[in-house]
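Please check this.
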Amino acid sequence: MYIPDELKHYIYDWAKAHPLDPVHVDCSTAVMLKILDGKCKMRPTSKVVMELLYDAVKHCQGKLLGDDIHALINSARYHLTSELKEDIYEQRLLAETMISRPVMKGFKAMIKAEGLFNSAAMEQLEQEE
């Protein structure tokens, strides 16, 4: 899927204007694991937004998830083997047990309320779906 530069800039600017707490960095990482695992039920454009958010915050310190998870995600994004897919699955399950549902729901509510998905470029992509 083509990702307009306008959307990339919007997400990076949004991340700068809305610094995530360490636990919310973990939530972003967990969503990325779920996307790679194929278990994410978001619309394709929402997945793109979440991948861009992950890219914008992956350098930030998380509370529970560390550099090993980011290295795994990086490997899986560019060369997803069956072995890596199994590792992603296991790490997703682990992340989901470490991050409580209320925390994850709070993260999702916050990013929606703060306008992460309110980009004209995203609306254009959704119309093209």
